[in-house]
Every structure is written in C-alpha cells, then in structure tokens.
Amino acid sequence: MTEHTPLDAAHAAMIADEGNDAARLRFYERLADSELFLLLTEEPSGENISPEVFEVQDQAFVLVFDREERLADFVGKTAPYAALSGRIVAGLLAQQGMGLGLNLEVAPSSILIPPQAVAWLDETLGNAPDEAEARITEVTPPVGMPENLLSGLDAKLATAAGLAHSAYLVGVIYENGVRSHLLAFVDAVPGAEGALAKAVSEALTFSGIEAGALDVSFIRASDQKAAVFAKWGLQFELPVPEEAQEIGRVAPGTDPSKPPILR
C-alpha cells in the first residue's frame, strides 16, 4: 500500500530521533486522535466486542490498523472489526492491562505498544483542565508561542469539526497584572465547551508545554470581545462536518459516552 498516513509520518519522526520527547508525544497524540480498526474474532454483538488477542512475553496485545485496507492485508481475507477512536481503544485496553499492535507487518508505522505505554496514554488523556475566572484588562497579539504548540493546536482543532465556528489566539493581561495567552472559541455548540477545553489541554500536553500556559474562553460572534480578538488574534478555522448519513445500526464505539465492552 502506497498511502502515507498521518500515523506513518508521526511514527517516522519518532523513530528518526528516539531521544526527541516532542516527536514521541506527537505520535501518541496522533494515535489518540486517529480512527483505528480493531481486529475481532467475530462480529460485534450489541455493545460487546471480542478482540483478537495474542501473547508476547506473557503480555496480551490486540491488533489495530489505521486503514481498513491494512487490516485486510494483514489478515489476508475479510475479517470482523470495530472502528474506534484511539482514545477509546486506550481506555478499553488500560482497564484490561493490554497492549496494542499497530499496523503490524503492513505499514512503516508497525509497532508494538506495551501495556504500560497504553496505560500512560489513557491517564494522560484523562487529565482535565482547571477552571478559573479572571477579568481581562488588555488584549495583545500572541507573542512567543512555540511553533510546535501552534501546529499542535492546528492539528487538534482539525479534529473538532462542528464544535465551534472558529477560535482566536491572543495575548491577554488580567486585572491582577498576570500576562497569559488565551484561546477564545467563537460560537461553540452548547455542551461542547468541556470537549474543546480538553482538546486544548491535550494540545499543550502533547506539545510538551506545561499546563496553564494557555487559557480558554467561549464567546459569541455577537459579543464585543469577538471584534477585539479578531483585530489582535491569530485565527483558527474549525472544519465544518460532513452531513451525517442515516444508518440503520449504530456500531459499537460510535457514541463516546458509551464505549464498547471487551469480552
């Protein structure tokens, strides 16, 4: 297969410089954000899935692929699978103390990820940002933001299609004199604030930036602040989701609030 996927690129960057923590973090971020195809022993039964499990040095692993074609190439025939986000897979495996084999034998990103690394990824993804309130007294252009954080935010917000119209990154000074940077989401979908704040927190974590280096707020396009942020800020456009197609059966893992059950 000739297609070079985002996971292939992130894996190549990681192995090219094994001492580069930023590249390693970026790979795990891409893994968490990717749709993965989990090889099963049989077709899903309701919310229950039965993954194919194999043992390596007394550790249990399941097999995932970032393309359906790669799964088919590995198996050599049609096989049952569940399409799940990497973060859901990490959560399921961490509960069971399992590792995962990614794209084994069929792609340049072929790698065995041990249970300890899967548990670390699940724990990292579970970290929630703190909430705080402070009044802004001055807005400035963003200055001195690390390039890897900017590219990380751009990639992360690309996965938040439909959750907000756009976002502005600005410098701010609060009434207590503290200087910071702020990412203001415009016209966020009601109820999506927590997911967006967590996405920003993950972008910080996987960029190797300390938590608290970037604040988050939510405004409407009609707010006076929106015009100020548009004047001074760096704008991020969030992608518009494709129109949903009606499907007859909801596949396991489609609803993030109801992850499938391993059996």
TrEMBL record:
State the superkingdom. Answer: Bacteria
Show where the SseB protein N-terminal domain sits.
16-120
The record's listing under Pfam families reads: SseB
- Which InterPro entries does the record cross-reference, listed alphabetically? SseB_N
Q: What is this protein called?
A: SseB family protein
